Amino acid sequence: MKFVGYHHHGRRQVGVLVGDGSHLVSLTDALPAGALPDGAGLTELIERWDILGGKLDLDSASPIAVATVTLTAPIPTPRRNIFCVGRNYREHAEEFGRSGYDATGGANNQPDAPVVFTKPPSAVIGPGAAIDPHPGVTGEVDYEAELGVIIGRGGRGITAESALDHVWGYTIINDVTARDLQKSHKQWFLGKALDTFCPMGPYAATADEVGAGPLDVRCTVNGEVRQEASTRDLIFDIPTIIATLSAGITLQPGDVIATGTPAGVGIGFTPPRFLTSGDRVQITITGLGTLTNHVS
Ligand code: MG
User: Fold this and answer.
1) How far is the CA of 51 from the centre of ligand 1 (A)?
2) 37 alpha carbon to ligand 1 midpoint, in Å?
3) What is the pLDDT of residues 161-173, one digit of tens each?
4) Is the pTM of this model over 0.85?
5) Which residues contact 201 (CB under 8 A, 6 or more apart)?
């Protein structure tokens, strides 16, 4: 199933896409009355997924055209920071090392262990929303197309072998980055955390919908292909990332993990090709649709 967040009649809601994806059924209509508290989001559904997942009835509710609502991110306000993995595709780790923007150093440009940072919930925006270029704060805004993993069953000490049992589903993340801030402040948080720097969507798909195989990740800027890779090329795969994070941090239902970006980001070019006002970034991942955002 594919879940969207949306505004309708002034309220934040969750919907399930039906048919060809042009219509949605609201969660409120698809579940028995009182199954979820008023105002519940996708995280609350994921928490109760074992009980409620099988109770979703998409046939008896009346569908709404997606075109008549304003979509938000599927999880518009995550309960805590989004976990992110940096330098997790071999070619990107190399281009990042070559670019001179990597203040973390490293002899061979390849990480020995997953490089982890976070983005705050306040950075999240939905499909179609504008990325703020923050003039005066940064002059080097870059895109990063990434597969986002959504945790279902939480836990600590999750083994790589059982990690996929803890995945509820997937979405697309654009790990927008202010390269000058990332470089000058050494620690990556500031450059990754600016308002609007975490586009997410257009929907969240359950794991069974997406399947277990490698996924193709593709990013275009104004229609020109910049990034094209397969998640097969991840240095640290999803089970390894989950095992690493959960070793000492209890993962919670609804946690989002951005798994890293392939080669082809703006700093990979000579000279670098940063985003400017009016640019349109589109990220497509197998089974997860296309996330489109423009720079305001
Ligand atoms: Mg990234």
Assistant:
1) 34
2) 34
3) 999 999 999 999 9
4) yes
5) 4, 5, 71, 72, 73, 74, 126, 127, 171, 172, 289, 291
